Model the fold of this input.
Amino acid sequence: MKGNFEFRTRKSNRSLWVIECIDPNCSWRLRASKIVPESTKFVIRKYVGVHCCSLLNRNANHRQATYVVIGEQVAPQYVGVEKGPGPKGVQTFARTKLGAQISYYKAWRGRKHAHTLIRGSPEQSFHILPSYFHMLEKLNPGTVTRIEVDGESRFKYLFLAFGVAIRGFRYMRKVVGIDGTFLKGQYRGVLLVATAQDGNGQCYPLAWGIVDSENEDAWTWFLTQLKEVIGDTDELALISDRAPSIKKAISIVFEKAHHGACAWHVAQNIKNKFKCADIMGSYWSAVNAYRCEDFAGYMTEISHRYPRVAEYLENEVRFEKWSRCHYPGLRYNITTTNMVESLNSMLVNARDFPYVALLDVIQEKMSKWWNDRRIVAMAITALLIPSRESEFRPRFAQSNGRHTLQLNPVTYHVKGGELEGVVDIFNKTCTCKEFDIDKLPCVHAIAAAHHAQVSVYSLVSPYYTKEYYVLAYGETIYPVGSQSQWDVPNEVATRVVLPREVKERKRGRPKTSRFPSVGEFRKRKNRCGKCGAYGHYKKKCNSQTGSTEGNQPTDVPV
Done:
């Protein structure tokens, strides 16, 4: 193939294979036959390796450069990576390594074949899903998996929660973000995610699910499984966008937990519905206000400028859903679902994988996170985790010089600074509300602890301590290994899970990028009409000649 010589098959059957050069005047040929009639292996019996054909018969558009051959050759470049070369990269590979000129479509098919060789086919993924879940449960005790099928044994939903994460949730703040993101593979679907956030501000994935779409039935099923692994208590807070299907499902499944709205999604709705991006500063100040008095001041500013926005926030969204100071439960400093969006972004390349390959990527990511964070946790020398220690030290310095008056054995009045505070060191509260909501001592609480000769660290929530951080990541998440090494009972291996029925796709290239959310705008880079580069206008172009040579764009517009 590298020499652009093509061949044709002269004879081919179960025991004999004879090929020769495409030029009948050329002596190049190869003859192979079975070693013995019962064998499946062939041995070359005769080979003439010299071409004597005309150079005019050489063809870079090689007939043997099929998408299967291209896929087999390029497949190693997809091992251990999530993305690998695209179709144009495959074209370059075929030209430089194989000496073949192939079309974009053949390169696309070759890339798809390489993906199948490395990650398996989508249909095979459904077939081995019960066995894969069995091995995850076997190697990771306490792991919870569920597969839901319809009456025809076609796949409907799946649920996965690693036992390590379930046990570690007891050391997490009880705030869980939930959201979904679409999958891009042949059978599409939606990936649902439920994640907590550790005391250091990092994602702590609790559960994963794949469903057909974000509808009420799918969310109800997923949240029912989630409730079994994390429980339902007054301490639990669930944060999501304001999608009706999620709101209805939460109200059905969780009777005690409190539901909060993602403040970022509310802001996007405001900008899209009322076209008033200039009040976002007041809005975010209201979101993050600790005291209702401060909140009322920011809402007055919004009401004076945009009365309809204030009415929307109060009556339609409702203060207790998005405002930290009005929230009936405890959501600490978590006001958005950014922790879920981070997980969705992490899987942007893996979302077109077959389901089992996608779950493998999730397991690999979580295993790495647990190991890396365990190493960090063991190296901490302070009592608090790094992010909270850095937040705590400035407050400690600001508490110096505050005048403290003891009111009773546990209550202290702290003066000085912009705001006074009355601290109850037994119930861990302060009238400034920072101590109450963040569960990290405020300036007043620190001053009161000094006066009472109490360790300020005893007032800190245990969720921010090194001890809890170590315990949260103390265990290991194990991979299932090669399929040839699986030990699966026959009743599991023979369980039938068929692919779901999907609508026939429209002709053309499948869409892989999501539609922008409400109020979300994607910036487009400006292209210079003089030099052709992106990022500036013609008037601000520094090119003297106006030639595009040497000024080719290095990126593309978003």
Summary: The CA atoms of residues 273 and 519 lie 8 Å apart. The longest strand covers residues 203-211.
